[in-house]
Batch of 2 targets.
Target 1
Amino acid sequence: MTKLRWAVGIVLFAIVAVFLQYYLPDRDIVQIVGTDVVRMNKQAKDGTDLTADQLRINGRWPDGSNIVYRNDDTGWGWPPYFKFDSADVQAKAQDFANVTGSDRPWVVVRHYGWRIPMFSAFPNALSLRVAEGPDEELIPWFNIVLISLLILTVLVIRRFLIMLFDRHVSPVIDDIDQEMDDTGERIAEQYRGVRGWFRRLFGG
């Protein structure tokens, strides 16, 4: 039973960790080298084929490798970043891309999501700002505070459930156990009585 609890706990922890790692904001320091508008084919819930333009931002890491971000509004939906200014973000990215040579700035790209080439998945750029340089230290204070609050909430809920169990459920279980013990004892006494009656009847 202990191994099963550990296995369930590890699976739940892994699911939560992957969920948070995907949706919590992250930041990259890159140079913006271009922007694109890509026509995407989608399918509506009713099966109708739709086409939509996806804004993309092309970046370059300090080591020279490339990274591509999509630039989509999240609106009022999930995840709750309430991003409505993708056009403004795209314009800012284009301004950064127009600067060439050694004057091209390093940019902090705040985003969420993963780059998965197999599924043509791109992280979604939320905002852009000029970085101090490619070595600027970025401390994820928002993620630290949010995860700390989540852990604290889980611990408080766990403590509350334990108190609730000890106060209301545990006494019921103890009563059931006592009743089962008493019932078992009565059955045993009846069995001994019947056995004694058969012995006396048949001279056993």
Target 2
Amino acid sequence: IPLRASEITAANELLAAEEVDTGDFIVGINVNASDVAIERRWPLENFAALADLLSQRLGANVILVGAPDEVPYVERAIAMMRETPVNLSGRTTLREVIALMDRMHLFITNDSGPLHLAYAMGTPTISLFGPETPLRYGPIGKKHSAVYKQIDCSPCLNFGNLKRSNCQQEGRCMKEIKVHEIFELVERGRQQWKEKGEITDLASPVIQ
């Protein structure tokens, strides 16, 4: 996605204002999924625990993003954290978020629009799938890992049912994705970044 100089400058100024050292390991997190299908959301307490682990054990600079109407949901996640992430939700334009993604070393997200924006920028991603399948909607390539448990009722969302879920299992497909699984993927990526200056391989494209 081509970026204007003003958008790159705005992203750099945001990072500088938050004292984010661009030499540090920068991990973006999107805790949201649009109202089209909120069933795609990983539990907030999992995102909170993961963000704390990334800060405490990997020394990562964790940046949370989100649209203006998603700010309250992002703040709920932050309230569960022991460490204080950089909260840029509601503070950027869409194109400034894209510019920020270009500065991130890794982007972690639910199955949602920001995943595809990060992918388009060439930023390595870890995406969390449940009600929909990464075999159809997931990113392609070794720099991307789609975590998907493929339980018996998943995927349940499709165009035939207008992406409306009638979940009888209380979101089991997302709840079965464990924090330690995502942390281990990030740890693998950080090691590659330290050794090579970039993330080149996030293991298998789908975890079952």
